[in-house]
Amino acid sequence: MTSRERVLAAIRHQEPDRAPIDLGAMGSTGIQAIGYSKLKVLLGIDEGQTRVYDTMQQLAVVEKPIFERFHLDVVSVSSGLGAESEAWKPWVLPDGSDAYVPVGFNPESDGAGGYVVKDSKGNVRMRAPEGCLYFEPAYHPLAQMTTASELEDWNPRTLSDEYLDGLRVNAKFLSENTDYAILGGFGGNILEAGQSLRGWGQFMMDMAADPEFTHAMLDKLTALHLANLKRYLEAVGDYIQIIQMGDDLGTQSATQLSLAMYREYIKPRHKAIYQYVREHSDVAVFLHSCGSVYDLIPDFIDEGVQILNPVQTSAAKMDPRRLKEEFGDKLTFWGGGCDTQTLLPTATPAEVREHVRERMEIFKPGGGFIFNQIHNVQADVPPENVVAMLDAAYEFGAYE
Questions:
Q1: pTM higher than 0.90, yes or no?
Q2: I want to staple 339 with a disulfide (CB 3.0 to 4.6 A). Which of 155, 181, 235, 343 is the partner?
Q3: pLDDT of amino acid 85
Protein backbone atom coordinates (compact mmCIF):
# COMPACT_ATOMS: atom_id res chain seq x y z
CA MET A 1 0.00 0.00 0.00
CA THR A 2 1.05 3.60 -0.46
CA SER A 3 1.25 5.83 2.58
CA ARG A 4 -1.89 7.67 1.49
CA GLU A 5 -3.83 4.44 1.06
CA ARG A 6 -2.54 3.16 4.41
CA VAL A 7 -3.66 6.25 6.32
CA LEU A 8 -7.05 6.40 4.65
CA ALA A 9 -7.66 2.72 5.41
CA ALA A 10 -6.82 3.28 9.08
CA ILE A 11 -9.17 6.28 9.29
CA ARG A 12 -11.93 4.12 7.78
CA HIS A 13 -11.34 1.56 10.54
CA GLN A 14 -9.88 -0.97 8.15
CA GLU A 15 -6.68 -2.87 8.80
CA PRO A 16 -4.00 -1.77 6.32
CA ASP A 17 -0.73 -3.63 5.76
CA ARG A 18 0.72 -1.89 8.84
CA ALA A 19 -0.17 0.90 11.22
CA PRO A 20 0.73 4.27 9.67
CA ILE A 21 3.42 6.35 11.38
CA ASP A 22 3.51 10.12 11.83
CA LEU A 23 6.28 12.41 13.01
CA GLY A 24 5.73 16.10 12.47
CA ALA A 25 2.59 16.33 10.31
CA MET A 26 1.23 19.03 12.65
CA GLY A 27 2.37 21.20 15.52
CA SER A 28 1.75 18.59 18.23
CA THR A 29 3.15 15.46 16.57
CA GLY A 30 6.70 16.57 15.89
CA ILE A 31 10.11 17.06 17.45
CA GLN A 32 11.80 20.04 19.08
CA ALA A 33 14.68 21.47 17.05
CA ILE A 34 17.43 20.64 19.55
CA GLY A 35 16.23 17.05 19.72
CA TYR A 36 15.95 16.88 15.94
CA SER A 37 19.56 17.98 15.46
CA LYS A 38 20.70 15.35 17.97
CA LEU A 39 18.72 12.70 16.10
CA LYS A 40 20.39 13.59 12.80
CA VAL A 41 23.83 13.42 14.40
CA LEU A 42 23.12 9.98 15.85
CA LEU A 43 21.93 8.73 12.47
CA GLY A 44 24.89 10.23 10.63
CA ILE A 45 22.65 12.43 8.47
CA ASP A 46 24.65 15.51 7.50
CA GLU A 47 22.56 16.73 4.57
CA GLY A 48 19.93 19.41 4.89
CA GLN A 49 19.53 21.74 7.85
CA THR A 50 17.53 22.11 11.03
CA ARG A 51 14.76 24.56 10.16
CA VAL A 52 12.52 25.84 12.95
CA TYR A 53 9.09 26.26 11.36
CA ASP A 54 7.16 26.69 14.64
CA THR A 55 9.09 29.41 16.41
CA MET A 56 6.95 29.37 19.57
CA GLN A 57 7.36 25.65 20.24
CA GLN A 58 10.73 25.55 18.41
CA LEU A 59 9.71 22.59 16.22
CA ALA A 60 11.83 21.37 13.34
CA VAL A 61 10.80 20.62 9.77
CA VAL A 62 11.16 16.84 9.37
CA GLU A 63 13.25 16.17 6.28
CA LYS A 64 13.08 13.46 3.62
CA PRO A 65 15.96 11.30 4.99
CA ILE A 66 14.07 11.02 8.29
CA PHE A 67 10.84 10.19 6.44
CA GLU A 68 12.61 7.40 4.60
CA ARG A 69 14.58 6.08 7.58
CA PHE A 70 11.49 5.70 9.76
CA HIS A 71 8.84 4.87 7.12
CA LEU A 72 6.74 7.95 7.87
CA ASP A 73 3.35 8.23 6.17
CA VAL A 74 1.94 11.73 6.75
CA VAL A 75 3.09 15.16 5.66
CA SER A 76 1.89 18.66 6.45
CA VAL A 77 0.39 20.67 3.61
CA SER A 78 2.94 23.36 4.45
CA SER A 79 5.82 20.90 4.79
CA GLY A 80 9.34 21.56 3.65
CA LEU A 81 8.95 18.49 1.42
CA GLY A 82 6.73 20.46 -0.91
CA ALA A 83 7.15 23.40 -3.27
CA GLU A 84 7.53 25.81 -0.38
CA SER A 85 8.36 29.47 -0.77
CA GLU A 86 9.50 30.13 2.81
CA ALA A 87 12.76 32.08 3.12
CA TRP A 88 15.12 31.17 5.96
CA LYS A 89 17.98 32.80 7.85
CA PRO A 90 20.60 31.44 10.27
CA TRP A 91 19.76 31.10 13.96
CA VAL A 92 21.48 29.62 17.02
CA LEU A 93 19.46 27.28 19.24
CA PRO A 94 19.66 27.58 23.05
CA ASP A 95 22.15 24.70 23.22
CA GLY A 96 24.48 26.54 20.82
CA SER A 97 23.75 24.43 17.76
CA ASP A 98 23.04 25.95 14.36
CA ALA A 99 19.60 26.17 12.83
CA TYR A 100 17.49 28.29 10.49
CA VAL A 101 14.33 30.29 11.20
CA PRO A 102 11.88 32.13 8.90
CA VAL A 103 13.21 35.52 7.81
CA GLY A 104 10.20 37.22 9.42
CA PHE A 105 11.15 35.95 12.87
CA ASN A 106 13.03 38.82 14.53
CA PRO A 107 13.45 38.46 18.31
CA GLU A 108 15.01 41.28 20.31
CA SER A 109 17.00 41.13 23.53
CA ASP A 110 14.87 41.59 26.63
CA GLY A 111 17.88 43.05 28.49
CA ALA A 112 17.96 40.12 30.91
CA GLY A 113 19.48 37.35 28.82
CA GLY A 114 16.30 36.39 27.01
CA TYR A 115 14.30 37.47 23.97
CA VAL A 116 11.03 39.16 23.11
CA VAL A 117 9.14 39.23 19.81
CA LYS A 118 7.22 42.45 19.09
CA ASP A 119 4.59 43.31 16.51
CA SER A 120 4.56 46.40 14.31
CA LYS A 121 2.92 48.40 17.11
CA GLY A 122 5.55 47.47 19.67
CA ASN A 123 3.40 44.98 21.57
CA VAL A 124 5.39 42.07 23.00
CA ARG A 125 3.77 39.04 21.36
CA MET A 126 6.10 36.33 22.64
CA ARG A 127 8.95 36.08 25.11
CA ALA A 128 11.68 33.58 25.92
CA PRO A 129 13.28 34.25 29.32
CA GLU A 130 16.95 33.39 29.79
CA GLY A 131 17.42 29.63 29.68
CA CYS A 132 13.99 28.96 28.18
CA LEU A 133 13.89 26.61 25.19
CA TYR A 134 10.64 28.07 23.86
CA PHE A 135 8.83 31.33 23.19
CA GLU A 136 5.78 31.91 25.36
CA PRO A 137 2.67 33.88 24.25
CA ALA A 138 2.56 37.22 26.02
CA TYR A 139 -0.18 39.37 24.45
CA HIS A 140 -3.97 39.31 24.85
CA PRO A 141 -5.45 41.93 22.51
CA LEU A 142 -8.97 41.97 23.99
CA ALA A 143 -7.92 41.83 27.65
CA GLN A 144 -9.13 45.34 28.46
CA MET A 145 -12.62 45.10 26.97
CA THR A 146 -15.55 45.20 29.37
CA THR A 147 -18.68 45.34 27.19
CA ALA A 148 -20.00 43.50 24.13
CA SER A 149 -20.36 46.78 22.23
CA GLU A 150 -16.56 47.18 22.20
CA LEU A 151 -16.34 44.07 20.00
CA GLU A 152 -17.75 46.03 17.05
CA ASP A 153 -14.30 47.45 16.31
CA TRP A 154 -12.56 44.07 16.63
CA ASN A 155 -11.74 42.44 13.31
CA PRO A 156 -10.33 38.89 13.63
CA ARG A 157 -7.66 37.89 11.16
CA THR A 158 -8.82 36.78 7.71
CA LEU A 159 -6.63 34.33 5.81
CA SER A 160 -4.88 36.21 3.02
CA ASP A 161 -5.11 35.33 -0.65
CA GLU A 162 -1.30 35.11 -0.72
CA TYR A 163 -1.27 32.55 2.09
CA LEU A 164 -3.99 30.42 0.53
CA ASP A 165 -2.39 30.57 -2.92
CA GLY A 166 0.86 29.34 -1.42
CA LEU A 167 -0.90 26.48 0.36
CA ARG A 168 -2.67 25.50 -2.85
CA VAL A 169 0.62 25.32 -4.76
CA ASN A 170 2.23 23.22 -2.03
CA ALA A 171 -0.79 20.93 -1.60
CA LYS A 172 -0.99 20.28 -5.33
CA PHE A 173 2.73 19.54 -5.47
CA LEU A 174 2.55 17.08 -2.58
CA SER A 175 -0.55 15.40 -4.02
CA GLU A 176 1.00 14.91 -7.44
CA ASN A 177 4.61 14.19 -6.49
CA THR A 178 4.38 12.10 -3.31
CA ASP A 179 2.19 9.28 -2.05
CA TYR A 180 2.08 10.59 1.53
CA ALA A 181 -1.21 11.35 3.25
CA ILE A 182 -1.53 15.15 3.44
CA LEU A 183 -2.71 16.96 6.56
CA GLY A 184 -3.85 20.56 6.51
CA GLY A 185 -3.60 22.53 9.75
CA PHE A 186 -6.62 24.83 10.12
CA GLY A 187 -7.15 25.23 13.86
CA GLY A 188 -10.67 26.56 14.39
CA ASN A 189 -9.93 27.04 18.11
CA ILE A 190 -12.70 28.33 20.38
CA LEU A 191 -11.62 27.85 24.01
CA GLU A 192 -7.94 28.44 23.25
CA ALA A 193 -8.76 31.44 21.09
CA GLY A 194 -10.79 32.97 23.92
CA GLN A 195 -7.94 32.38 26.35
CA SER A 196 -5.47 33.90 23.92
CA LEU A 197 -7.61 36.95 23.17
CA ARG A 198 -8.62 37.69 26.76
CA GLY A 199 -5.99 35.96 28.88
CA TRP A 200 -6.45 32.48 30.32
CA GLY A 201 -7.86 33.50 33.69
CA GLN A 202 -9.98 36.35 32.36
CA PHE A 203 -11.69 34.19 29.76
CA MET A 204 -12.52 31.50 32.29
CA MET A 205 -14.13 34.23 34.43
CA ASP A 206 -15.93 35.60 31.38
CA MET A 207 -17.70 32.29 30.81
CA ALA A 208 -18.81 32.17 34.43
CA ALA A 209 -19.73 35.81 34.97
CA ASP A 210 -20.35 37.53 31.62
CA PRO A 211 -22.22 35.26 29.20
CA GLU A 212 -23.40 38.18 27.03
CA PHE A 213 -19.85 39.32 26.26
CA THR A 214 -18.58 35.75 25.89
CA HIS A 215 -21.27 34.67 23.44
CA ALA A 216 -20.85 37.85 21.41
CA MET A 217 -17.09 37.39 21.13
CA LEU A 218 -17.33 33.69 20.30
CA ASP A 219 -20.09 34.28 17.74
CA LYS A 220 -17.89 36.76 15.91
CA LEU A 221 -14.92 34.42 16.16
CA THR A 222 -16.92 31.44 14.84
CA ALA A 223 -18.25 33.42 11.89
CA LEU A 224 -14.68 34.32 11.01
CA HIS A 225 -13.57 30.67 11.34
CA LEU A 226 -16.35 29.54 9.01
CA ALA A 227 -15.51 32.20 6.42
CA ASN A 228 -11.85 31.22 6.55
CA LEU A 229 -12.70 27.52 6.45
CA LYS A 230 -14.75 27.91 3.27
CA ARG A 231 -11.82 29.57 1.51
CA TYR A 232 -9.32 27.10 3.01
CA LEU A 233 -11.22 24.10 1.65
CA GLU A 234 -11.64 25.80 -1.71
CA ALA A 235 -7.87 26.21 -1.84
CA VAL A 236 -6.67 22.78 -0.68
CA GLY A 237 -9.69 20.54 -0.11
CA ASP A 238 -9.09 18.59 -3.32
CA TYR A 239 -5.54 17.71 -2.26
CA ILE A 240 -5.57 17.02 1.49
CA GLN A 241 -7.00 13.97 3.28
CA ILE A 242 -7.11 15.33 6.85
CA ILE A 243 -7.86 18.75 8.32
CA GLN A 244 -6.53 19.48 11.79
CA MET A 245 -8.61 21.41 14.31
CA GLY A 246 -7.42 22.24 17.79
CA ASP A 247 -8.61 23.16 21.27
CA ASP A 248 -6.84 22.03 24.44
CA LEU A 249 -9.78 21.16 26.66
CA GLY A 250 -8.16 18.98 29.32
CA THR A 251 -5.72 19.22 32.20
CA GLN A 252 -3.76 16.39 33.78
CA SER A 253 -6.62 15.56 36.15
CA ALA A 254 -9.85 16.70 34.49
CA THR A 255 -11.42 18.84 31.79
CA GLN A 256 -10.66 22.56 31.94
CA LEU A 257 -14.34 23.42 32.22
CA SER A 258 -17.52 21.66 33.25
CA LEU A 259 -19.51 19.62 30.78
CA ALA A 260 -22.38 22.09 31.08
CA MET A 261 -20.11 25.04 30.33
CA TYR A 262 -18.51 23.18 27.43
CA ARG A 263 -21.93 22.48 25.94
CA GLU A 264 -23.05 26.08 26.32
CA TYR A 265 -20.02 27.93 24.97
CA ILE A 266 -17.79 25.56 23.02
CA LYS A 267 -19.69 22.60 21.59
CA PRO A 268 -22.19 24.45 19.36
CA ARG A 269 -19.34 26.35 17.72
CA HIS A 270 -17.14 23.28 17.35
CA LYS A 271 -20.07 21.47 15.78
CA ALA A 272 -20.75 24.25 13.27
CA ILE A 273 -17.10 24.20 12.17
CA TYR A 274 -16.62 20.44 12.05
CA GLN A 275 -19.95 19.77 10.35
CA TYR A 276 -19.07 22.31 7.67
CA VAL A 277 -16.07 20.16 6.78
CA ARG A 278 -18.14 16.96 6.81
CA GLU A 279 -20.83 18.51 4.59
CA HIS A 280 -18.56 20.24 2.09
CA SER A 281 -15.63 17.87 1.60
CA ASP A 282 -14.34 14.31 1.90
CA VAL A 283 -11.62 15.46 4.30
CA ALA A 284 -11.40 13.76 7.72
CA VAL A 285 -11.77 15.96 10.81
CA PHE A 286 -8.79 15.69 13.20
CA LEU A 287 -9.08 17.25 16.67
CA HIS A 288 -6.03 17.97 18.80
CA SER A 289 -7.02 18.24 22.47
CA CYS A 290 -4.55 17.61 25.27
CA GLY A 291 -5.17 16.23 28.73
CA SER A 292 -8.07 14.39 30.30
CA VAL A 293 -10.83 14.67 27.70
CA TYR A 294 -12.55 11.31 28.26
CA ASP A 295 -15.78 12.96 29.45
CA LEU A 296 -15.96 15.03 26.25
CA ILE A 297 -15.36 12.25 23.72
CA PRO A 298 -19.06 11.47 23.12
CA ASP A 299 -19.57 15.17 22.37
CA PHE A 300 -16.58 15.17 20.01
CA ILE A 301 -18.11 12.29 18.08
CA ASP A 302 -21.48 14.05 17.93
CA GLU A 303 -19.77 17.17 16.58
CA GLY A 304 -18.21 15.25 13.70
CA VAL A 305 -14.69 14.54 14.97
CA GLN A 306 -13.20 11.45 13.31
CA ILE A 307 -9.63 11.56 14.66
CA LEU A 308 -8.42 12.35 18.20
CA ASN A 309 -4.91 13.49 19.10
CA PRO A 310 -2.62 13.35 21.13
CA VAL A 311 -4.40 10.68 23.25
CA GLN A 312 -2.68 11.68 26.50
CA THR A 313 -2.85 8.33 28.26
CA SER A 314 -1.05 9.59 31.40
CA ALA A 315 -3.97 11.93 32.18
CA ALA A 316 -6.97 10.98 34.32
CA LYS A 317 -9.51 8.57 32.76
CA MET A 318 -7.38 8.21 29.61
CA ASP A 319 -6.51 4.53 30.00
CA PRO A 320 -5.63 3.29 26.50
CA ARG A 321 -7.54 -0.01 26.74
CA ARG A 322 -10.66 1.78 27.93
CA LEU A 323 -10.42 4.33 25.11
CA LYS A 324 -10.02 1.63 22.46
CA GLU A 325 -12.82 -0.53 23.85
CA GLU A 326 -15.34 2.31 24.22
CA PHE A 327 -14.54 4.51 21.24
CA GLY A 328 -12.29 2.50 18.91
CA ASP A 329 -15.08 1.86 16.39
CA LYS A 330 -15.98 5.56 16.17
CA LEU A 331 -12.67 7.42 16.51
CA THR A 332 -9.25 7.00 15.00
CA PHE A 333 -6.57 7.48 17.66
CA TRP A 334 -3.66 9.53 16.31
CA GLY A 335 -1.21 9.32 19.17
CA GLY A 336 -1.02 7.40 22.42
CA GLY A 337 1.75 5.29 20.92
CA CYS A 338 4.48 6.30 23.37
CA ASP A 339 4.26 8.21 26.64
CA THR A 340 6.44 11.29 26.27
CA GLN A 341 5.60 12.53 29.75
CA THR A 342 6.69 9.68 32.00
CA LEU A 343 8.64 7.24 29.84
CA LEU A 344 10.34 8.48 26.67
CA PRO A 345 12.77 10.94 28.33
CA THR A 346 14.03 8.53 31.02
CA ALA A 347 13.57 4.92 29.87
CA THR A 348 16.15 2.72 28.18
CA PRO A 349 15.76 2.02 24.45
CA ALA A 350 14.73 -1.54 25.32
CA GLU A 351 12.01 -0.23 27.64
CA VAL A 352 10.80 2.16 24.95
CA ARG A 353 10.60 -0.71 22.45
CA GLU A 354 8.54 -2.85 24.82
CA HIS A 355 6.25 0.07 25.66
CA VAL A 356 5.54 0.69 21.97
CA ARG A 357 4.88 -3.01 21.44
CA GLU A 358 2.26 -2.96 24.20
CA ARG A 359 0.60 0.16 22.79
CA MET A 360 0.48 -1.41 19.34
CA GLU A 361 -1.30 -4.44 20.78
CA ILE A 362 -3.91 -2.15 22.32
CA PHE A 363 -4.58 0.38 19.59
CA LYS A 364 -3.86 -1.49 16.36
CA PRO A 365 -6.68 -4.09 16.08
CA GLY A 366 -9.43 -3.15 13.64
CA GLY A 367 -7.58 -0.14 12.25
CA GLY A 368 -8.41 3.28 13.61
CA PHE A 369 -4.85 3.98 14.71
CA ILE A 370 -2.02 6.13 13.40
CA PHE A 371 1.14 5.75 15.45
CA ASN A 372 2.48 8.90 17.00
CA GLN A 373 4.05 9.67 20.35
CA ILE A 374 1.94 11.71 22.77
CA HIS A 375 2.63 15.31 21.67
CA ASN A 376 6.03 16.61 20.58
CA VAL A 377 9.38 14.94 21.34
CA GLN A 378 11.17 17.37 23.64
CA ALA A 379 14.78 18.53 23.65
CA ASP A 380 15.80 16.34 26.59
CA VAL A 381 14.77 13.03 25.01
CA PRO A 382 17.83 10.90 24.17
CA PRO A 383 17.98 10.42 20.39
CA GLU A 384 18.52 6.68 20.98
CA ASN A 385 15.03 6.58 22.48
CA VAL A 386 13.54 8.35 19.46
CA VAL A 387 15.11 5.71 17.21
CA ALA A 388 13.88 2.90 19.46
CA MET A 389 10.36 4.33 19.43
CA LEU A 390 10.02 4.78 15.69
CA ASP A 391 11.78 1.52 14.84
CA ALA A 392 9.42 -0.32 17.19
CA ALA A 393 6.41 1.37 15.59
CA TYR A 394 7.47 -0.09 12.25
CA GLU A 395 8.54 -3.46 13.68
CA PHE A 396 5.29 -4.10 15.55
CA GLY A 397 3.00 -2.23 13.17
CA ALA A 398 2.35 -5.03 10.68
CA TYR A 399 -1.08 -6.64 10.53
CA GLU A 400 -1.28 -10.41 10.18
A1: yes
A2: 343
A3: 58
